[in-house]
Amino acid sequence: MILNYHGRNVTVDDVLIRALERQAFDTNRGWLHSNLVTVLRSFGLAAHRRNWRLLDGHENQYLAGRSLDEDARLELENVRSQMLDEGIWRLRQLLSADLPVTVSVHRPRGDDSSIGHQVVLLGEDAQEFIYHDPAQDEGPSLSWPFDNFRNNWKGLAIIAHSAALSPSKG
């Protein structure tokens, strides 16, 4: 989907073969975003990954020796929420620039223990994201209400461009 959008005429099978060659899938962890970025680059795209859940698993480093009391718990919760809000803002900016974005979500929805699943956000309307899920027959016209998406988004995205953008352009 992303490759075809950027003028790369490849099949899903072509991408899967290259992804497996580059060890972009692990049966215990799912899709490995760094390796998926390498796959996109191997097809001539400029690509990078973003993670708006960098705090997860690093709470002690963030607290820098402070005890995990109620105030610290609330602070961590607020920071996590702010990071996701920043991520949603960035996704919307990319979509408004007509740039589809690959995101990692829980599948099935609501299952925080899932290893994740990749879908491509294509746009948005007033109440929901429009996306494509390659594992569903309905095609690229699926919709996902904002709040439900936010609760199921793993905070990870892969952003790909047909040419490298300077930092000042996004």
What key phrases describe this protein's structure?
170 residues, alpha+beta, 6-stranded antiparallel beta sheet, two-stranded antiparallel sheet, 6 helices, 24% strand
Describe the protein's architecture and organization.
The chain has six helices and eight strands. It is α+β, with helices and mostly antiparallel strands and about 170 residues long. Strands 3-8-4-5-6-7 form a six-stranded antiparallel sheet, sandwiched between helices. The relative contact order is 0.18. The mean pLDDT is about 90.
Roughly what percent helix?
25-40%
The secondary-structure element order is HHEEHEHHEEEEHE
* Spatial sequence of strands, sheet with the most strands: 3-8-4-5-6-7
- Main sheet attributes: strand count, strand direction, barrel closure: 6 strands, antiparallel
What's a quick, concise take on this entry?
With 170 residues, this protein is α+β, with helices and mostly antiparallel strands. It contains 6 helices and 8 strands; from the N terminus they run H-H-E-E-H-E-H-H-E-E-E-E-H-E.
Task: Explain the layout of strands and helices.
Elements: H1 2-5, H2 12-21, E1 25-26, E2 30-31, H3 33-42, E3 46-51, H4 59-63, H5 70-96, E4 101-105, E5 117-124, E6 128-132, E7 142-145, H6 146-152, E8 153-161
